[in-house]
Amino acid sequence: MYKPTVAVVGRPNVGKSTLFNRIIGERKAIVEDSPGVTRDRLYAEGDWLNYTFNLIDTGGIEIKDEPFQQQIKMQAEIAILEADVILMIVNGRDGVTSDDLFVARILQKSKKPVVLAVNKIDNYEMRSEIYEFYQLGLGEPWPVSGSHGLGLGDALDEVVQHFKSLETEVEEDPSVKVSLIGRPNVGKSSLVNAILGEERVIVSDIAGTTRDAVDTAYTYEDQPFTLIDTAGMRKRGKVYEATEKYSVLRATRAIERSDVVLVVLNGEEGIREQDKRIAGLAHEAGRAIIIVVNKWDAVEKDEKTMREFELEIRSNFQYLDYAPITFVSAMTKVRLKTLFPLIQEAYASSHMRVKSSTLNEVLVDSVSMNPTPTDSTGRRLSIYYGTQVSVGPPTFVLFVNDVELMHFSYRRYIENQLRKAFDFTGTPIHIITRKRN
Ligand code: GDP
Ligand code: GDP
């Protein structure tokens, strides 16, 4: 099912962060009495009625050294680009300000639906403060109080009203979604172009909406794929495209929509901290992953260089031991042909289903080769039965006598045994333990 995105916009200090936290239902971000406070998160999942949606707090995306008006303009533009519905927040205690009018005018020009919430209406008597906000031209103002948790339900009802029209617009798409993520300049755009330019790839017309304008549909060996280009947006030359927070947000959103993620590294520059952070996002999301070392043409090398780089990747990305590595060049097209089989294999692995009978044979053999651990009182872990509950990534539930007895190292051992028995190349696997009732 399509998961809509809501972006929260407004001037600093109107209460965006407070409302964001209310909606995601956790009090995680730090709220202080000063504008531009540090935020823990600017992207999270929210629920209202029967809807689950993504929520972006655009107030958390800042570019240093830009003037104030430039900042709020940028935040509004990001909201327009990323969101299906925009939740504009104003401060009922300040009345309409020229900055509110400035933001409202930018939003009006877009075709995106906007819901206007007047915050800091902490009691019933204050409700008359909302009427002057009609002049923003964004429709009915909804009184809310982020700190007291008032009125938010009515505003969210209005937000989800807009979701209803989205559902009919977006149809299920059976293609395998592939994205490329990585630091700026590693060669993502060049790779996208090179991949789409391969002779056996048939690029079809871009399906769908403007929101997905950077997606490209193609067919390879009769299998439909969609390539999600996270870099394409940046090429429009907007200043904020280069901010780290926005590129992390874009990567997170691309990963969420992907089945297979190509983590692109720059062979010429080697591994940086930011590479690890970006790869970590894909791993945590449970996506199938291929590590692509680009610009291999520009690397001075002998017969040991590739092996050495591989070892360096393995030691820097230990949690990605399941991800295959390929060394390519978007420029000379060297080994580009390896990408398609790797993508197909990783997708197949992440969607493999193991029969319960086979799985339990492997579990019994594993336990007989390496007995389950005991705790300090001598109580031993018993694994009664295992079953696969989902794919993308393959997720297994093991029914045990006591979940506390399953140590990290034994879980790791079981994972390795499963990987020996079945080909899970390119995909993480999840193992969940449950106490048997
Ligand atoms: P942001 O900069 O727009 O994200 O604003 P914050 O969420 O950081 O809030 C700014 C200040 O307004 C903080 O001191 C909040 O405690 C306060 N605040 C937020 N919502 C309300 C509200 O509904 N009523 C009142 N009285 N204060 C609020
Ligand atoms: P992105 O920011 O990750 O999308 O990177 P781009 O695709 O824009 O590439 C950044 C720069 O690296 C450009 O100047 C490209 O020409 C260059 N580049 C990309 N791929 C290769 C490659 O395989 N070899 C070499 N030598 N340069 C490359």
Automatic annotation (TrEMBL):
GTP 2 binds at residues 182-189, 229-233, 294-297. GO terms for biological process: ribosome biogenesis. Gene3D superfamilies: 3.30.300.20, P-loop containing nucleotide triphosphate hydrolases (3.40.50.300). GO terms for molecular function: GTP binding; ribosome binding. Coiled coil: none annotated. InterPro entries: G_ENGA, GTP-bd, GTPase_Der, KH_dom-like, KH_dom-like_a/b, P-loop_NTPase, Small_GTP-bd. GTP 1 binds at residues 10-17, 57-61, 119-122. The keyword S-adenosyl-L-methionine does not apply. The keyword Nucleotide-binding applies. Residues 4-167, 176-351 form the EngA-type G domain. Keywords: GTP-binding, Nucleotide-binding, Repeat, Ribosome biogenesis. GTPase that plays an essential role in the late steps of ribosome biogenesis. Belongs to the TRAFAC class TrmE-Era-EngA-EngB-Septin-like GTPase superfamily. EngA (Der) GTPase family. Associates with the 50S ribosomal subunit. This is GTPase Der. It comes from Jeotgalicoccus coquinae.
